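re: ur question from yesterday

yeah so i grabbed the chain u mentioned. its 174 aa long if i counted rite. heres the sequnce exactly as i have it in my notes:
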Amino acid sequence: MEKTYESCNFLCLTDESVPGYPLYIRKRVHGLTASVFSSLVSISHPKRTTKEETSETNSPSPEHETLNLQPGELVEVKSVNEIAETLDERQKYKGLYFMPEMEKFCGKKFRVFKRAEIITLESTGEVRKLRVPTVFLEGVYCTGELHDGCDRSCFHFWREVWLKRIPESNKNAL
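ran it thru and got these structure tokens back, copy pasting raw so excuse formatting
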């Protein structure tokens, strides 16, 4: 019997109705068979790239991208323009999308909840170690507004290059 995926995320083309946002958005699907899932993957990822072609190597490399942020530290999310300078043509920095719903957090201060170092891909079950410093921020999660009302409340993944450490003397600012 063919494997069935109960639920997974995949990327699909948008209608480009929102200028400046990625052409791909996440969609949630339910009850896919393995063969249907495979065909969606080939549609949603039309160009398979080699390691040399990935956004990891094409992304700009701003200075001081590694802050080594730790849980409890206070940070400010950089402005949309500052973050945009780090993104490649696919709206990614080293393989991670800066999603449109993350813009509302720009310019605001938050505490680091935890470092994101190991993740499991829902679509395949593959466990990956993140090589680029990435954190979760306290109280910063996806509301599902741009994902058909999804109620999962997933944390947004924040690359350290998108954040500014708040100096010790300004920690009462939050």
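noticed a couple things. The two ends are 55 Å apart (CA to CA). also Confidence is low (pLDDT under 50) at residues 2-60.
anyway ttyl
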